Amino acid sequence: xxxxxxxxxxxxxxxxxxxxxxxxxxxNHLYFYWYxxxxxxxxxxxxxxxxxxxxxxxxxxxxxxxxxxxxxSNFTLKIRSTKLEDSAMYFCASSPRTGSYRGxxxxxxxxxxxxxx
Amino acid sequence: xxxxxxxxxxISVVEKEDxxxxxxxxxxxxxxxxxxxxxxxxxxxxxxxxxxxxDEQNEISGRYSWNFQKSTSSFNFTITASQVVDSAVYFCAxxxxxxxxxxxxxxxxxxxxxxx
Lengths: 117, 116
Known about the structure:
- The complex is a heterodimer of chains A (117) and B (116).
- Chain A is globular, with a radius of gyration of 14 Å.
- With 117 residues, chain A is mainly beta.
- Chain A is built from no helices and 11 strands.
- The termini of chain A are far apart.
- Chain B is mostly beta strands and 116 residues long.
- Chain B has strands at residues 3-5, 10-14, 19-21, 24-26, 32-39, 46-52, 59-61, 64-69, 74-79, 88-96, 105-106, 110-115.
- In chain B, strands 2, 5, 6, 10, 11 and 12 form a 6-stranded mixed beta sheet that branches.
């Protein structure tokens, strides 16, 4: 069964450094997402992306964050200058666009654990 | 605004017991979708079920069943004859029709521990 793959599984970075989290969505999916989960807390929406542009973003997704689909397969999340509070599990997800895209299940990757020191 | 509440933060049962996880949601949308996801100790999020707001039929899949009641804005999840492998955090989530970006709003999760 097709999967969303995320790399790396664990990233340790010094505060203030830039970090790029990578994702390969399921190949025939057209909607892409990033969520984050601070340890022990709920999963929070960051951003959704369709047709090479951001569809929606949350308040968490400030100017320090950016997303990109640099080629036909990868989808990246960049944090420009990391803070301690950016430490979390970051999940990438994708969903198909068949008929009405709304409500299509989002399929999640295994996540990247980001630790900011 | 959308909101999902899972009032039970943690449930502990003994294997073979039945267990129900509660989910209550709030939305102003007339069309919306509800989901359950499982997060095992390994950390990934596994899709379990989707239900749209027009379909109030209960669903059963093996030992899992879901009870959607629009009148009480609830979408509860029951595991029958629980097993140790069911131990995980379970999240209920909501997607309203007016979300331009198809975002999911998650509840806080219920940690289920099934003891042998």
